[in-house]
């Protein structure tokens, strides 16, 4: 697949940039391997030690935090990455400086709001409140993520990976030490704060070391701030709706069932996030080059869309089959019998991976075409539909109902909704053909000839 992508980009991209693109994917892949490999086993050890109920409290706090992180980001990630791709040095300083001020303010505000929200909703559970407050502080440290947008725009994910991997390893070692010391849940929650804090510090040091004048060159502009907030608004709404959609199941399980059920369900989510992370590598890395390609040759961009949809769908089908065959053994070996309820949940959730991979470039397509209205409508509908489905399915089917709610929502938002809008009707037919693997033999044959 990478060889085919390389061919698509080569005619409009210098050879050196093509190798930077592939290198960027390799570094992101390394990051995912470290996190998926080490992270899964460390998480399994912690899950066995703490048990489903305590893990449920931790996961509930993380779910709350995830929603407020979207608020604090102000919908800026893809907007900033897009603007930084071709910006002059002075403009880059203005973009980053303006984003830094607005992000620091928003992160501080929503960190406080998150803490008070958890306090208000869990007055009868002091441990849950303490864990929630610790996790909410991490929102403030994530203001440093604007530096990652700069590196993404310049295909320098190597530097992001280096800093975040160090922080991840430190956090993982601390968790293992805490297990040895028979520590309480609150101590484990603190390792999250240490990880995001250390990652932010290392990112800042990396930027200061490698960029001329570092953050001292950053400037603030009210006009640029207005532009970022205006353009980020639709993406903020869609991002918030998406985060509500992906976190609603855990939050509603916690309210309608028990924290133990949250803990069991979240173990399936942890394994489900592995193929989601792989998908994220391609989406993040290809976006800067897709932006340039879209401006130069839309036909070639659509060729890449067809290729990506077909091959990624094929990969997703393979992933589903493998998971259905060995998933139950993986869960029992990693987490133990106390989390056996996660087996069926994982099998159901993996169906949604097919739709996610099939629509892998859909978000980029909407953004590049300026179809913000569709982005917002889809995002809001996904949140509303998922909440409604969870409301009816969780009481009847338990955590398995929440899994089906997610899959049904993914099918509607990523596939069926394309038919309802004129601007996405063309990709509906592209994705539909890819869903049935039409022309897969042709693409595989082309790739085989390139190897």
TrEMBL record:
Protein name: PST family polysaccharide transporter
Membrane-traversing stretches: 100-121, 133-151, 163-181, 276-294, 314-335, 342-359, 371-392, 399-421
Organism for this UniProt entry: Sediminitomix flava
Pfam family, any one: Polysacc_synt_3
Domain of life: Bacteria
Keywords assigned: Membrane, Transmembrane, Transmembrane helix
């Amino acid at each position: 697949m990478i060889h085919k992508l390389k061919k698509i980009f080569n005619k409009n991209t210098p050879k050196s940039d093509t190798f930077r693109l592939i290198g960027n994917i390799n570094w992101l892949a390394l990051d995912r391997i470290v996190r998926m490999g080490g992270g899964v086993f460390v998480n399994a050890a912690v899950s066995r030690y703490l048990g489903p109920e305590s893990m449920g409290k931790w996961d509930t706090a993380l779910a709350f935090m995830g929603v407020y992180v979207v608020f604090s980001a102000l919908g800026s990630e893809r907007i900033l990455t897009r603007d930084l791709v071709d910006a002059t040095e002075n403009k880059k300083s203005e973009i980053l400086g303006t984003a830094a001020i607005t992000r620091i303010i928003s992160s501080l505000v929503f960190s406080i709001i998150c803490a008070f929200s958890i306090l208000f909703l869990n007055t009868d559970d002091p441990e849950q409140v303490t864990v929630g407050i610790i996790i909410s502080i991490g929102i403030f440290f994530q203001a440093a993520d604007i530096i990652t947008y700069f590196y993404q725009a310049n295909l320098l994910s190597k530097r992001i990976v280096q800093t975040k991997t160090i922080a991840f390893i430190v956090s993982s070692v601390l968790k293992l030490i805490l297990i040895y010391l028979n520590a309480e849940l609150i101590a484990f929650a603190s390792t999250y704060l240490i990880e995001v804090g250390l990652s932010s510090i290392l990112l800042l040091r990396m930027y200061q070391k490698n960029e001329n004048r570092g953050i001292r060159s950053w400037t603030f502009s009210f006009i640029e701030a207005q532009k970022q907030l205006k353009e980020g608004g639709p993406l903020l709404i869609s991002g918030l709706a998406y985060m509500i959609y992906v976190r609603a199941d855990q939050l509603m399980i916690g309210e309608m069932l028990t924290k133990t059920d949250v803990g069991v369900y979240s173990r399936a989510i942890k394994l489900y996030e592995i193929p989601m992370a792989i998908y994220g590598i391609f989406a993040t890395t290809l976006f800067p080059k897709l932006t340039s390609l879209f401006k130069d040759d839309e036909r070639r961009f659509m060729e890449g869309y067809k290729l990506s949809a077909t091959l990624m769908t094929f990969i997703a089908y393979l992933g589903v089959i493998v998971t259905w065959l060995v998933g139950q053994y993986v869960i029992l070996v990693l987490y133990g019998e106390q989390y056996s309820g996660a087996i069926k949940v994982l099998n159901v959730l993996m169906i949604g991976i097919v739709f996610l991979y099939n629509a892998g470039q859909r978000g980029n397509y909407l953004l590049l075409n300026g179809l913000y209205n569709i982005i917002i409508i889809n995002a809001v509908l996904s949140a509303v539909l998922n909440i409604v489905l969870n409301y009816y399915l969780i009481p009847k089917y338990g955590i398995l109902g929440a899994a089906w709610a997610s899959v049904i929502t993914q099918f509607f938002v990523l596939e069926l909704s394309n038919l309802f809008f004129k601007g996405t009707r063309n990709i509906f037919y592209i994705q539909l053909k890819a869903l049935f693997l039409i022309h897969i033999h042709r693409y595989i044959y082309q790739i085989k000839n390139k190897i």
